[in-house]
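Weekly modeling sync, notes
Attendees: S.R. (lead), two postdocs, one rotation student

Agenda item 3: backlog of single-chain predictions. S.R. asked that every request posted to the team notebook include the full sequence so nobody has to chase files. The rotation student volunteered to paste the first one in as an example of the format we agreed on. Action items at the bottom.

Example entry:
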Amino acid sequence: MKRWFLLLTIILLGAGAKITHSEREWLEILGKERFLVMRKKGTEHAHLGKYTHTQGDGIYACAACSLPLFEGTEKYDAGNGFPSFKKPMSSKNIYYLEDWSFSFKRYEVLCRGCDSHLGHVFHDGPPPKHFRYCINSIALVYTQRDAKFLGRQK
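Predicted structure, as returned to the notebook:
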């Protein structure tokens, strides 16, 4: 990711602004694969994502705008081939849209910082709340807790 974009993103998110770009700009910033998942609501292939088996207590942030989304301590293996989380880091950093694209109702998970598609949330997760946030690896960037994290929580 270009340094100027990362710096601008941090400044704008710090001010509470939403990151917006044209489709052409998003494609340039994200690259083709990430663009197809995050801006066109695609899905990466199961079991092939970079963070499917990652463990640790780091932070998973949006790959498009660096907004912190999930904590590594809330990640678990749901056996579905995608990173799965029990809950988001902050409910202020994501939002949901009803999705009927497969003839049944499910909820799409989007980043509040840039409106990027992240994945879906299902009600078949572990207790106590039974949520399973099924997120595309390509939509995330992982940072260890002891590393300097540039994103910010809204």
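Discussion: group reviewed the output briefly. The first strand starts at residue 59 and ends at 62.
Action items: rotation student to repeat for the remaining queue; S.R. to check formatting next week.
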